[in-house]
Amino acid sequence: MSEPTHDSQQRPATFGCRNLVIALLLLCADTAVAQETSNFGDYWYQGKAEITSYRLEQARYGEMRQGDAVLIFVTEPFSQSKQVKLDHPQVAKADAVNVLKLNLTKKFTTGIYPYSMMMSTFTPIPRDDPWKVLKVTTSSQEWCGHTFTQLNAGDDGYSAELRSYFESEGDQELDLGKVLLEDSIWSLIRLSPIDLPTGEIEIVPGTLYQRLSHQPLVVQSAVATLAEQDDDLIRYRLHYPDLERTLIWTFERVFPHRIQSWEETRKSGFGPSDEPLTTRATLNKRILLEYWRYNSVADETWRSEMGLD
Across the chain, which distance is largest between two alpha carbons, in Å? Predict the structure, then answer.
């Protein structure tokens, strides 16, 4: 699944005032609380995926629903031109790049019918642009139908495709240009939190939010802040004033900056009440595993281990 190419994470040699504050937040940690390893290559190129399950409280149609969410982070070889995982990276040569792949899944039920949602991002290592992901794909399935969104990075920015069963959305093809994506934040936290944008920014809201809100896929204004949660944790907050929407990610101060929880507060826009509700995902279980090798009936015990039964 992964190929070692870099032994350490590359960071800029000098920082502006903003980055200096962030650097102090991230580096002034007690090394005794460091996780499995402080070495980038040893952690991300050990041939295993980091799988984390979360207890999910999902706001939908003006009410809270119970479910589960999973973050799967793993490195793999990727084609820069085709933007797909490479079967034979040694043949691809200069076209091959290592990426940190994130698969984020959500499952919850609304009344009689279930939702199954998934977002995937592919972030190059090292990054020529701190904000850049090469590709984003997002799908949503429920009993009314299903939708699919894909963003691809090109020389002129992102092109997007949206396939939906709703007449008002239909099939769309969009050019977003060179923009910052909310969906890039997840992997940026893991790879280089020192590069997290702060202050007043322009950003495209996440594709999972776009699916649930049916808002257009356009750039929005937001305010981003980074602050200490406690001695071990950092909190990153993203607030969209025009959308009345706020996200908060809480992650470990020290490498590998694992995400402990996240939450999203917004008006639902649907259901009997339009009062703001907060969706929360809180840590359940985390393992490092070559999950693609565990596909027998007997291996279903791993789901119990992750609290997913």
Answer: 57
Question: pLDDT tens across 215-244, in order?
Answer: 899 999 999 999 988 889 999 999 999 999
Residues 40 and 255: beta-carbon distance below 8 Å: yes
CA angle 280, 131, 216 (to 5 degrees): 60
Q: What is the pLDDT of residues 14-26, one digit of tens each?
A: 334 555 555 556 6
Place of tokens 């939908």: 60
Non-local CB neighbours of 194 within 8 Å, separated by 6+ positions: 11, 15, 19, 22, 23, 26
Domain region containing 185 = 17-305
Output the pTM of the full model: 0.88
Residue with tokens 């409280």: 57
Confirm whether 295 is domain-assigned.
yes
| Nearest one of 89, 150, 143, 86 to 118, comparing CA atoms | 150
* Total domains present in the chain: 1
Q: Locate tokens 């009997």: which residue?
A: 272
